[in-house]
Write a structure and sequence with these properties.
364 residues; alpha/beta; TIM Barrel; four-stranded parallel beta sheet; single chain; binds ligand V47; four-stranded mixed beta sheet
Length: 364
C-alpha cells in the first residue's frame, strides 16, 4: 500500500502521517485533489488506527426536533419553514418531553434535540423542555441546541453566551451537537445563509461552551457551492479552535441533500467525495478524537466502508430523523442495534456502544 501512496505523489504526507506530524492546508488541498482515493484512505486509516485502534462506536440515541419554524431560511435547508406556512410545526413543551416519555422502555442514553431559530418562543420554553426531559428520564444525556440556537437563546435571555449556557446547564443541558457550522466562509454564508450566525460567531459559542466544561461536536456541510480551499479553511478554523479549548468530541462531515431546498438544481454528493471528506478530515484534524460517518446522510453501506477511510463512529439508532429526510434522504429513519453491530463487525472493527462522551457502555 505504501508504494501506492508514493506512486500517487503523496510520499511526503505519508512520512508526516507516520511521524504523527500535523499536515498543512496546502497538503490537505492536495489530498482533496488527489484522484487516488485508496491512497488518501490508507493515510486516514493509519491515523484512525493510531487514535482508536479496533474500536468503532455507535450510540443508542433519539432525535427530537421541537420545531421547524425558522427565521434564517437557509437555501440549503428543507427543514426550516416560515411561521404560519404549510408544513411548519411547533411542539408544546409537553409534546417535546412526551417524545422522550414515549420511549422510556428503550435503553436510550442520549436525546439529540435541535430546531429552527423560532421568532417568538420565550427563553423559558427551552429551559422547561430541558427540565421536563430530566424529570421523566434523569439519567439521559441531553445533547441539544446548535451553537446557532445557543446564540439566539442568549439574545432571548438578554445575557452573554456564557451566562446563558450556565442557565441551560443548570436546566439539564449536557453537551452541544455540531450543527449550524455549515461552511465558515463568509462568501458561502452570504450566498446560502445570509441571516445565520457568522462562522466566527459559531466558533466563539463553541469555545465558550468548552471553557465551561461542555463538550461540543463540529460539522461541515459539503457538496454544494463551496470550493476545496473553503473546506480546508473550515477545517483549519476548527483545528485552531480545538488547539485553544480541546472541547470538540467529534467532527461530522454532512453530505448536502438538495431535494426540497432552494438549491435543488445541484446533484447529490458522490461516494468518492463522501469518503474523501471523511479521510481528509481524519488526517487534517489531528486534535479531534473522533470522526463520525453519519449513516443517515451517506447511507449505512457507505458508513460501513468509511470505517476503513478514517471514521471510527457511525452515529446511532437515531429514531425519527427529520432534517435530512425532508431534503430527500432515502435512508431509514432509525437503525436497530443488531444492524449497527453487524455493519461494524463486517467492517472488521469491534463494535462499542458508547455514551455521548465516548464512555464505553458495551463492547460486542
Ligand atoms: O445544522 C441542513 C445540516 C445539520 C441539510 O453533532 C443539511 O453528533 C444535508 O448537525 N442536506 C443538522 N445537511 C444535523 C447535524 C448533526 C447530525 C448528526 C449528528 C450530529 C452531531 C449533528 O444538518 C444542520 C445543517 O448543517 N443540513 N440541511 C441538507 N439539505
Amino acid at each position: 500500500m505504501e508504494s501506492l501512496v508514493i506512486k500517487a505523489g503523496l510520499g511526503d504526507i505519508l512520512d508526516k502521517v507516520k511521524r504523527a506530524e500535523r499536515i498543512t492546508k496546502e497538503e490537505a488541498i492536495r489530498l482533496y485533489e488527489s484522484p487516488d482515493l485508496l491512497a488518501v484512505g490508507y493515510l486516514a486509516n493509519m491515523v484512525r488506527e493510531r487514535k482508536n485502534g479496533d474500536k468503532a462506536y455507535f450510540i443508542y440515541n433519539q432525535h427530537v426536533n421541537y420545531s421547524n419554524i425558522c427565521t434564517n431560511l437557509c437555501k440549503f435547508c428543507a427543514f426550516g419553514k416560515e411561521k404560519g406556512t404549510d408544513k411548519s410545526y411547533e411542539m408544546t413543551v409537553e409534546e417535546a418531553v412526551g417524545k422522550v416519555r414515549d420511549r422510556l422502555d428503550e435503553p436510550i442514553t442520549e436525546v439529540h434535540m435541535v430546531g429552527g431559530i423560532h421568532p417568538d418562543l420565550p427563553f423559558s420554553y427551552y429551559t422547561d423542555i430541558l427540565k421536563g426531559i430530566k424529570e421523566v428520564r434523569p439519567d439521559i444525556h441531553v445533547q441539544a441546541f446548535t451553537c446557532v440556537e445557543i446564540d439566539h437563546l442568549a439574545k432571548l435571555a438578554d445575557k452573554p453566551v456564557k451566562e446563558t449556557l450556565e442557565i441551560l446547564m443548570a436546566a439539564g443541558l449536557d453537551s452541544i451537537p455540531g450543527g449550524g457550522a455549515e461552511v465558515f466562509s463568509s462568501r458561502i454564508r452570504e450566498k446560502t445563509c445570509p441571516d445565520k450566525l457568522s462562522g466566527q460567531g459559531w466558533l466563539e459559542v463553541a469555545k465558550t461552551a468548552h471553557r465551561l466544561g461542555l463538550n461540543t461536536n463540529a460539522t461541515m456541510l459539503y457538496g454544494h457551492i463551496e470550493t476545496i480551499e473553503e473546506r480546508v479553511e473550515h477545517l483549519a478554523a476548527l483545528r485552531e479552535a480545538q488547539d485553544e479549548t480541546a472541547g470538540f468530541l467529534a467532527f461530522i462531515p454532512l453530505a448536502f441533500h438538495p431535494k426540497n431546498t432552494k438549491m435543488d438544481d445541484l446533484s447529490r454528493t458522490s461516494g468518492v467525495d463522501d469518503l474523501k471528506n471523511i479521510a481528509v478530515s481524519r488526517i487534517f484534524l489531528d486534535n479531534f478524537p473522533h470522526i463520525k460517518a453519519y449513516w443517515v446522510m451517506i447511507g449505512p453501506k457507505l458508513a460501513q466502508v468509511a470505517l476503513s477511510f478514517g471514521a471510527d463512529d457511525v452515529d446511532g439508532t437515531v429514531k425519527e430523523e427529520i432534517i435530512t429526510h425532508m431534503a430527500g434522504a432515502d435512508t431509514e429513519q432509525a437503525m436497530a442495534i443488531p444492524e449497527l453491530v453487524r455493519i461494524i463487525k463486517e467492517a472488521g472493527r469491534t463494535p462499542v456502544q458508547r455514551g455521548t462522551l465516548y464512555d464505553v457502555i458495551k463492547e460486542y
